[in-house]
UniProtKB/TrEMBL annotation, chain A:
Part of the ABC transporter complex LsrABCD involved in autoinducer 2 (AI-2) import. Probably responsible for the translocation of the substrate across the membrane. This is Autoinducer 2 import system permease protein LsrC. CDD domains: TM_PBP1_transp_AraH_like (cd06579). It is found in: Cell membrane. Keywords: Cell inner membrane, Cell membrane, Membrane, Transmembrane, Transmembrane helix, Transport. It is a multi-pass membrane protein. Its main location: membrane. The complex is composed of two ATP-binding proteins (LsrA), two transmembrane proteins (LsrC and LsrD) and a solute-binding protein (LsrB). The chain crosses the membrane at residues 27-44, 56-76, 107-131, 137-155, 176-199, 228-248, 269-296.
From TrEMBL, chain B:
PROSITE patterns: ABC_TRANSPORTER_1, ABC_TRANSPORTER_2. InterPro entries: AAA+_ATPase, ABC_carbohydrate_import_ATPase, ABC_transporter-like_ATP-bd, ABC_transporter-like_CS, P-loop_NTPase. Coiled coil: none annotated. One of its GO terms (molecular function) is ATP binding. This is Sugar ABC transporter ATP-binding protein. It comes from Nocardioides mangrovi. CDD domains: ABC_Carb_Monos_I, ABC_Carb_Monos_II. Keywords: ATP-binding, Cell membrane, Membrane, Nucleotide-binding, Repeat, Sugar transport, Translocase, Transport. Residues 12-248, 258-502 form the ABC transporter domain. Pfam families: ABC_tran.
Length: 354, 516
């Protein structure tokens, strides 16, 4: 068997296995989630088999799920949005102020206002990044503080209370359809819509192309600037939506709302298989990642593990996910080099053949 | 000017096209006229302006002046999307694919077949890719990601893309550089069938055997200008080489004879997967050895491996007879090596720092007193070297970023000379430096050699290599294909060794297995 034959047979087989591994990332995370729920339920059956346990399992991750979807889209384009926590807080407070001003406003309209306001804040990010040619991590770190600062100076020590909201709005945070909380349904619908768009629309696929290799995307003639802008607008809009949902669920909004949740959103996306280097991942993976992150944090106390370790476990999860990604891409890279070397080793005789 | 128009006119026509980047004229007067149903070779030395010309056609750059027509219509592309829409496809030496996406998506990105409700019809897309691959006679799984594909297969993807776009003009920029013999044959077969479909093909290559095998017409460029267009049948390799080099080796490069001493650097059987193979050479004290070859031949990679910046798989490096450990630049510095990289701004200078800090950077350890480094000590160490090299700065506190290219190069040189090296490896010593300063850098190198320094100089400028080097090593596709003494070196024989590729070297063990 010649070297070329070996390469031809070994390469696709190994790669197919590796590709399979990457593709099953969502399944892997889902399986880990199921195991954790099962083990924790075994320890204390109230974790799942009580009306409270069931509800908490579904409702706790809802906010992070929405944010993780937006974050996934941004990360797929090889950017990151750190401002979503501040956007969430600011929008949640705005929702309260809107209801105080116009108590009779229809609830759906308030959702539209939240989405639009979040989209506006996202647009600011997108414009600065797409046209200023400054890395997203710097811009959104800046707007994280700016948006939070605006929130602080606007709200001060004031807070919006449940009594400021109409009861139909507050009910959204507690209502359930077929035992599934409404806020969770909202998160799932968001995941479904965005995921469907990314998978089936031409422009959706372009997000992946841009994140995979931006220079190639430019050479290809793809509208890179427009797509990156859109990713940030979408991320902002979803953070705005999450802000409204936050208000509905908790009823009170103080200036600490959404503090630090942006890093959890990044973590959820990474755990769910969205490659931080762009081009790879699904919003469904990011959503599952969000559920896993929240659920682990809720499961650890059941196991008697202290708060300190909860943070460390989340960190270990993220590191583990990144290590997995890195190993995967390293192995692929090595395969590529091996293939090239074989190409070099082969003779370059072209001479007279025609 | 390139030929008379055939019946029906040229598919692609460029006349007197110019393009400058800042003060650098990359293309002074480029002309190229390609008939449909023809494979047209475009040849020229490094920096002849071929790539700039291609990028203008591709819509990457916009020309400053000149005529640009497609099928007789004047065009002006502002973006790559424009050129694509007009039926131009460019296949670059390193194909630009999306590594994370499937090969099929790479072909159809942005224009995927749509089913009901404007959803991407994946089944139709994969079927279409299968059909394209079958037409090209290749077996590539349309669902696999582009990552990990061989360069040859990546090019096939690019060609499939071009065909699915129904491109009437296809430009291939050195497509065979990374291909094996079988892959080259396959590519040529595809190219010929595209020609028979009456498409116009432009083929850029440094391999004359391929040019003569595949093409029917050839255009030569030199120094950013059009030189000639001939029918392949009416020309010879010697004529083409003469037209490509065509300039006189002037006395601009005054290498003074120096006493050649003992072997300083001894490299034996150095190999690195995919980059270079079995590289052996020596550099003696007082000798300037030129590493010539085409861009991408692996010269810089060899230098970086010798200095220990990059790893290598096999072979060894010795200085003054004792081994230098691999992949440890600091050990290499201790052994007496100095390395001035190709990209000064990125790799050679702390661009925002002062001259003295830059010069003293490498010898910091020796300068510091109890761990503290004072500006005074730095200035004292930097002073003599900056003076010797005539670095034109108002003071040693001047920031490197504000200096000219020539002076930056001198600062980098001063920095390394302060370590009192025995061997200087210098990559493209005069790139981006104006003509006057070039001579100064050359004089300096010559002087240093005269003082017994061994110098390994990488240069893509043929006159520089011929003028400066005592010995020219020609690298082609990762291998040293010629070792020519100063007196025997001519532009022609260096160019030949750089292009004639490895088919003249003893056959490799794998040959038999592949061809069998």
């Amino acid at each position: 068997m010649s070297q070329l034959d070996i390469a031809a047979s070994a390469q696709p087989r190994l790669q197919r296995a590796l590709v399979g591994l990457a593709k099953s990332r969502e399944i892997t995370v889902a399986a880990v989630l199921v195991v954790i729920i099962a083990l924790t339920t075994f320890k204390s059956d109230g974790f799942l088999f009580s009306s409270d346990g069931w509800r908490n399992l579904l409702v706790s991750p809802a906010l992070l799920m929405i944010l993780a979807v937006g974050q996934a889209v941004v990360i797929i384009t090889r950017n990151v949005d750190l401002s979503v926590g501040s956007t969430l807080g600011l929008t949640a407070y705005l929702t309260g102020k809107v209801f105080i001003q116009w108590p009779d406003l229809p609830v759906p309209l308030v959702f539209v206002i939240g989405l639009a306001f979040g989209a506006l804040l996202g647009l600011v990010n997108g414009v600065l990044i797409a046209f200023g040619r400054v890395p997203a991590i710097v811009i959104t770190l800046g707007t994280l503080y700016v948006y939070r600062g605006i929130f602080l100076s606007w709200a001060g020590s004031d807070r919006v209370n449940a009594s400021d909201f109409p009861s139909s709005f507050n009910e959204l945070g507690t209502k359930a359809i077929l035992t599934i909380p409404v806020v969770t349904i909202i998160a799932l619908v968001v995941m479904g819509l965005v995921g469907y768009y990314l998978y089936t629309a031409r422009s959706g696929r372009e997000f992946y192309a841009i994140g995979s290799d931006e220079d190639a995307a430019k050479l290809y003639g793809l509208p890179v600037t427009r797509r990156v802008l859109l990713a940030f607008v979408l991320s902002g809009a979803l953070a705005g939506l999450a802000g409204v949902v936050y208000a509905a669920r908790y009823g009170t909004v103080s200036s600490g709302a959404g503090l630090g949740i942006e890093l959890q959103a990044v973590g959820a996306a990474v755990i769910g298989g969205v490659a931080i280097a762009g081009g790879v991942g699904t919003v469904w993976g990011a959503t599952i990642g969000a559920v896993l992150l929240i659920t682990i944090n809720r499961a650890l106390p059941v196991w008697g593990i202290s708060d300190f370790w909860q943070q460390a476990v989340v960190g270990a999860l993220i590191l583990g996910a990144i290590t997995l990604d890195r190993l995967y891409s390293r192995r692929q890279e090595r395969l590529l080099i091996a293939a090239r070397d074989l190409a070099h080793a082969a003779p370059t005789k072209v001479g007279t053949a025609s | 000017m390139p030929g008379t128009a055939p019946e029906g006119g040229f598919a692609l026509e460029l006349r007197d096209v110019a393009k400058s980047f800042g003060s650098v004229a990359a293309l002074r007067s480029g002309s190229l006229a390609v008939a449909p149903g023809s494979i047209h070779a475009l040849v020229g030395e490094n920096g002849a302006g071929k790539s700039t010309l291609v990028k203008i056609v591709a819509g990457v750059h916009r020309r400053d002046s000149g005529v640009f027509r497609l099928h007789g219509t004047d065009v002006d592309f502002g973006s790559t999307a424009d050129s694509k829409a007009s039926g131009v496809a460019v296949i670059y030496q390193e194909p630009t694919l999306f590594p994370d996406l499937s090969v099929t998506e790479n072909i159809f990105m942005g224009r995927q077949p749509l089913g009901t409700g404007r959803r991407i019809d994946r089944a139709a897309m994969y079927a279409e890719a299968e059909r394209l691959f079958a037409g090209l006679g290749v077996h590539i799984d349309p669902r696999r990601p582009a990552r990990g594909l061989s360069i040859a297969d990546q090019q096939i993807i690019e060609i499939a893309k071009a065909i699915s776009l129904d491109a009437s003009v296809l430009i291939m920029d050195e497509p065979t550089a990374a291909l094996s013999g079988v892959e080259v044959e396959r590519l040529f077969a595809v190219a010929r069938s595209l020609r028979d479909e009456n498409r116009a093909l432009v083929f850029i290559s440094h391999r004359f055997d391929e040019v003569f095998d595949l093409c029917d017409t050839v255009t030569v460029m030199r120094d950013g200008a059009y030189i000639s267009t001939q029918s392949i049948a009416d020309t010879t390799v010697d004529q083409l080489v003469a037209q490509m080099v065509g300039r006189e080796v002037t006395d601009l490069f005054p290498k003074t004879p120096a006493e050649i001493g003992d072997v300083v650097l001894d490299v034996e059987g150095l190999s690195s997967a995919g980059l270079f193979r079995d590289v052996s050479f020596q550099v003696r004290a007082g000798e300037i050895v030129g590493l010539a070859g085409l861009v991408g031949a692996g010269r810089s990679e060899i230098a970086r491996a010798v200095f220990g910046v990059d790893r290598y798989d096999a072979g060894r490096v010795r200085m003054h007879g004792s081994d230098v450990p691999a992949h440890r630049p600091r050990a290499a510095i201790r052994a007496g090596m100095a390395f001035v990289p190709e990209d000064r701004r990125k790799q050679g200078l702390v661009i925002d720092e002062s001259v003295s800090r830059n010069v003293a950077g490498v010898i910091r350890r020796g300068l510091s007193k109890a761990g503290f480094l004072t500006s005074g000590a730095e200035n004292r160490a930097a002073g003599p070297w900056a003076g010797r090299l005539e670095v034109k700065t108002s003071s040693l506190d001047m920031h490197a970023t504000t200096m000219s290219g020539g002076n930056q190069q001198k600062v980098v040189l001063a920095k390394w000379l302060a370590t009192e090296p025995k061997l200087l490896i210098i990559d493209e010593p005069t790139r981006g430096i104006d003509v006057g300063t070039k001579a100064e850098v050359h004089r300096l190198l010559s002087e240093l050699a005269g003082q017994g320094l061994a110098i390994l100089m990488i240069s893509s400028e043929l006159p520089e290599v011929l003028g400066m080097a005592d010995r020219v090593l020609v690298v082609c596709e990762g291998r040293i294909t010629a070792d020519i003494a100063r007196d025997d070196a001519t532009p022609e024989n260096v160019m030949r060794a750089a292009t004639a590729s490895i088919q003249h070297s003893p056959s490799q063990p794998v040959d038999a297995e592949v061809t069998a």
